[in-house]
């Protein structure tokens, strides 16, 4: 802190001083010079928008990016006819690596963290492999099943998380938590039986994507537990994305062929495909960025609640855009699944409170 300064002035030397003062000298208190942080905060008040408006804009961006990437993937892989989900996922990873590098090293949205050991490197590599499997399966499923059904299956992630946590770590939840998972399973069974566009392969790869996402969260909690190895989500993406791209490269070449050449040849007659791919890849990064921003400006619990709302909104928007048929029973099954996820979240919160 800068101590307050004083300024002694002779009486009547300044006409603005009180002429009725009786002392020969008068001491004027001059406020302390503000520190740099205070000055910056004063400057920022006028130049920044309201925190509530900023949070609302971030949440809106989160909804748009999460739903947007689903709709773009569905359009590219199913409607437009770009049937290369592995190559598309690899483009997503390259995009995330490039944008993450700029965001961390130049925009400095979070401090840069470095991989500290070979052991930590291989742990991140293992997470990258699981991440690849989950994302490729999710994108592949969109070729065969509607977005609404994809989101209904994706809502069962807590069920698989509980299973993997028990198998890998022997972690047992309370009876209330397990009971809350029953409507999650029942709802998806109901939705599957009444889905007009049901496709077995699409259903299985979507289950694979959902279970892969759950497995990644459990494994990440195990592998990166020590304070020395913990990485911020944006730094983790910076390292995982290029690893994932390298993992996917041989698979796309072996399974899908020389897609880069095919894409360039297609772009000569239809340049819109380049715009679609670049836009899709950018939105894929924005999903990760807005996940971080929502957690930063609200909480992880808010992100979880928004995830449930996003699933329902994405299903509704996709039905409006792609006009895929939906039965009353299918919609009921989806609603039951989402209700089960909400009950599960509440049961987990109460379980944590009682254990602490």
Automatic annotation (TrEMBL):
Main subcellular location: membrane
State the UniProt keywords alphabetically.
Membrane, Transmembrane, Transmembrane helix
Transmembrane region positions? 53-72, 84-109, 121-142, 148-168, 175-191, 236-255, 275-294, 328-345
Keyword Transmembrane listed? The answer is yes
Pfam (any one): TPT
The membrane topology of this protein is: Multi-pass membrane protein
Judging by the UniProt lineage, the source's domain of life is Eukaryota
Q: Where is the Sugar phosphate transporter domain?
A: 56-345
Task: List the residue ranges forming a coiled coil, or say none.
Answer: none
User: Where is it found, in Gene Ontology cellular component terms?
Assistant: membrane
Q: Does the keyword Membrane apply?
A: yes
Annotated compartments: Membrane
Name of the protein in its database record: Drug/metabolite transporter
């Amino acid at each position: 802190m800068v101590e307050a300064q004083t300024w002694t002035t002779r009486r009547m030397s300044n006409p603005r001083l009180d002429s009725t003062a009786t002392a020969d000298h008068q001491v004027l208190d001059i406020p302390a010079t503000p520190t740099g942080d205070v000055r910056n905060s004063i400057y920022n008040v006028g130049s920044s928008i309201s925190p509530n408006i900023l949070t609302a804009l971030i949440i809106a961006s989160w909804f748009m990016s999460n739903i947007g990437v689903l709709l773009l993937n569905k359009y590219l892989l199913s409607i437009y006819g770009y049937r290369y989900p592995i190559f598309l996922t690899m483009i997503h990873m390259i995009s995330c690596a490039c944008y993450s590098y700029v965001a961390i090293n130049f925009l400095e949205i979070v401090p840069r963290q470095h991989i500290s050991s070979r052991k930590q490197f291989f742990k991140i590599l293992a997470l990258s492999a699981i991440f690849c499997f989950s994302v490729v399966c999710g994108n592949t499923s969109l070729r065969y099943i509607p977005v609404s059904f994809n989101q209904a299956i994706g809502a069962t992630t807590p069920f698989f998380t509980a299973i993997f946590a028990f198998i890998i770590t022997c972690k047992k939840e309370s009876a209330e938590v397990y009971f809350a998972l029953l409507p999650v399973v029942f709802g998806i069974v109901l939705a599957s039986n009444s889905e007009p566009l049901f496709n077995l392969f699409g259903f299985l790869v979507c289950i694979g994507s959902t279970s892969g996402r759950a497995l990644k969260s459990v494994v990440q909690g195990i592998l990166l537990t020590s304070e020395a190895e913990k990485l911020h989500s944006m730094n983790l993406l910076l390292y995982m994305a290029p690893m994932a791209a390298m993992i996917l490269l041989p698979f796309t070449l072996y399974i899908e062929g020389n897609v880069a050449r095919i894409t360039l040849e297609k772009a000569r007659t239809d340049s819109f495909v380049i715009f679609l791919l670049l836009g899709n890849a950018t939105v894929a990064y924005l999903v990760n960025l807005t996940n971080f921003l929502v957690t930063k400006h609200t909480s992880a619990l808010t992100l979880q609640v928004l995830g449930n709302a996003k699933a329902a909104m994405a299903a509704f928007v996709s039905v409006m855009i792609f006009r895929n048929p939906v039965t009353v029973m299918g919609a009921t099954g989806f609603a039951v699944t989402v209700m089960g996820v909400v009950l599960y979240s509440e049961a987990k919160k109460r379980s944590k409170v009682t254990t602490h």
